[in-house]
Amino acid sequence: MKLQFVTPNQHGIGDHGAASLLIVMTFVLGLGASSLLAKWINVGMGVFLVSYSLLTKYRLGVLKVLRFPSHLAIDKIDAMVFVVSPFLFHFSGIDFCYVIVAISVILIVLVTMPKQPADRIWR
Collapsing DSSP states into helix, strand and coil, what is residue 112? Predict the structure, then answer.
């Protein structure tokens, strides 16, 4: 039994929301307390997520040049960045929340369908 119930179109909505949260919550939560790098990695990853989301072939993509499985591969790389950053750059306190972000990204990728089902295409 596959637990993939999030369609690429739904994933796209989440991408744009997550990118906004990465950028805004950086300042709301005060990330960067243990390292200025923590703040700018988060903002940079939010901007990067918006960028490759706009290039992805799904409902909210604009240029639609990036295949969705490639988008999911980039999501996995992003998760790895969030996992290793606290350890590599010695983040502490609230900046250690990167591990939670990484787990969230991995879970979303695991429950996302790699192809949009024909019966769920938005026109």
Answer: strand
